[in-house]
Amino acid sequence: GAVVSQHPSRVICKSGTSVKIECRSLDFQATTMFWYRQFPKQSLMLMATSNEGSKATYEQGVEKDKFLINHASLTLSTLTVTSAHPEDSSFYICSASVRGEKLFFGSGTQLSVL
Amino acid sequence: AQKITQTQPGMFVQEKEAVTLDCTYDTSDPSYGLFWYKQPSSGEMIFLIYQGSYDQQNATEGRYSLNFQKARKSANLVISASQLGDSAMYFCAMREDYPNSGGYQKVTFGTGTKLQVIP
Fold first, then answer.
1. Given A32, B21, B36, B81, which is the most exposed site by the fewest CB atoms within 10 A?
2. Are A57 and A86 in contact (CB under 8 A)?
3. Alpha-carbon distances of B85 from B16, B19, B38, B61, B119, rounded to whole Å
4. Is residue A102 less than 8 Å (CB to CB) from chain B?
5. What is the mean pLDDT of chain A?
6. Quick check: A97 and A32 in contact, CB under 8 A?
7. Average per-residue pLDDT for chain B
8. Residues on chain A touching B91 (C-beta within 8 angstroms)
9. Are B53 and B75 in contact (CB under 8 A)?
10. C-beta atoms of B33 and A101 within 8 A
11. What are the helix and strand counts (H, E) for chain B?
12. What value does the mean pLDDT take over residues B65-87?
């Protein structure tokens, strides 16, 4: 199956710093990438949808200035958590769509903000 | 209203038996897709099966089959011959298409069902 690479898998940072998470589709071109946040033992909460070359569409309640998403190419999307705070600590996971029929996920990033 | 509803927070099944995980959805969009994913304790999301809204046949992938009842808006996952390695969280998800919004798509997930396979 298609491979989506997400880095880093785990990051610990100090409060107030920014963290960038990368999501790459390795063997296919992803016209759409999704970013999710997952709290322990809960479902995936859609944060935003990004199409290559256009601005991301954020879900209600997600701060676009806080969570910057860039989808610069058909194989790369990045999520930057700006001025991170402890409440931003969570599991972030990206996914890439292949013609809308399959959705492949990265392995996720566990963010811990101290 | 919830877009995706999974009413079973937890399920037990005997090894080698079949199990059905329930999923109902809510959309007025004629074009949509339904997915099932498995999430083991490691956190990765493993794609299991996909059903498009216009597909006439129920999707099957090995031991997984999707019981698609469009009129009832249900998309239950059937796992046949359960194995111990099937113990995990299972999520149902729906993709909605918005063709008049520049190809925007949205994929939302249900709350999940924790399946435990008993030896």
1. B81
2. no
3. 11, 14, 11, 17, 11
4. yes
5. 90
6. yes
7. 92
8. 43-44
9. no
10. yes
11. 0, 12
12. 97
* Beta strand B113-118 pairing with B10-14: parallel
Q: What is the Cα–Cα distance from A75 to A97, expressed in whole angstroms?
A: 11
Look-up of token digits 């995936």 = A44
Q: A105 and B111: CB-CB below 8 Å?
A: no
Q: How many percent of chain B have pLDDT more than 70?
A: 95
Q: Pick A100's closest partner by Cβ from B45, B95, B111.
A: B95
Residue type, B90: Y
What span, in angstroms and rounded, lies between the C-alpha atoms of B34 and B51? Answer: 5
Convert the pLDDT of each residue in A51-104 to its tens digit.
777 788 899 999 999 999 988 888 899 999 999 999 999 999 999 987 666 788
Report the residue count for chain B: 119
Residues with Cβ within 8 Å of residue A5, at least 6 apart in sequence: A22, A23, A24, A25, A26, A106, A107
Q: Which residues of B19-29 are buried (b: 16+ CB within 10 A; e: fewer)?
A: bebbbbbebee
Instruction: Give the Cα separation of B76 and B23 in Å (integer).
Output: 5
